[in-house]
Amino acid sequence: MQLLDGKTLSKKIEIIVADEVKNFKKATNSVPGLAVVLVGQDPASAAYVNMKKKACDRVGFYSVTHEMPEDISQETIENTISMMNDNPSIDGILIQLPLPSQIDETKILELVAPSKDVDGFHPFNVGRLTTGLDGFVPCTPLGVMELFKEYNIDIKGKNCVVVGASNIVGKPMASLLLNADATVEICHIHTDNLKKHTLDADILLVGVGVINLITEDMIKSDAIVIDIGINRADNGKLVGDVDFANVSEKCSYITPVPGGVGPMTIAMLLRNTLKAAKAHAKERV
Q: Catalytic positions, please?
């Protein structure tokens, strides 16, 4: 068994991005800018935003966080996004999810300018991903594909089973795998006999938020296991959706939690923001 070390790879990517930012600054006399909207006091969301802020600082981005109270109005968030859409210093806009129940999440995500949608959630970018065109791809699935590339894992023709059908992870993950010529199956909460499906997987990708959902009897020998889940166990430790201790004895590759997919998500956010900044700089010439 070999660990797919996202922590080490993400550091390599940060070094590359930081070098590109220096060159970008010389060429344009500006730096990439990322704005984050954080609503409420959810500790996990706040921790993620703080990690993203630190990553931006490390590579030389300009970053700003718009912190808003839990009872914020739809109109106020919309006005903030419109302001960021019009701000030439902002290249990427990130809406930290989930949003409070009184907020129309779909409308908020659709309001972000597609050229600044570095999370890849706008229908414009979703459509481009589905049809295999260039655009912004959600950072977590993109990070998984980068891990495959780093470890020379050929997914062409492989049976890939994605457990979880969210718009953020499952669906875009399936699209990326399809675009790479894998054979893809998506399982979800209504899938009957999950084990029957996971046992067929050459590559199993899981992101649903259920501790120990995948056990060693649910995978075939030498399968590749990508654990995208992140949960806090009763003892306070961060764990994934896979029974790591036992599954790791049977698979060929596996991502640890923490230190696997998580760091790659932030690395891809940096890369997407730099991509947006380069595109905006070209438009200004």
A: 52, 96, 119
Same domain for 196 and 162? yes
| Tens-digit pLDDT profile for residues 239-254 | 999 999 999 999 999 9
pLDDT of residue 247: 97
Minimal CA–CA distance to 103: which of 166, 35, 165, 40?
40
Specify if 125 maps to a domain.
no
pTM, to two decimals: 0.96
Q: What number of CA atoms fall less than 13 Å from residue 90's CA on the CB side?
A: 25
Domain that holds residue 81: 29-116
Q: Is the domain of 111 the same as that of 167?
A: no
Within-domain flag for 255:
yes
pLDDT, tens only, 152-194: 999 999 999 999 999 999 999 999 999 999 999 999 999 999 9
* Number of domains observed in the structure of the chain: 2
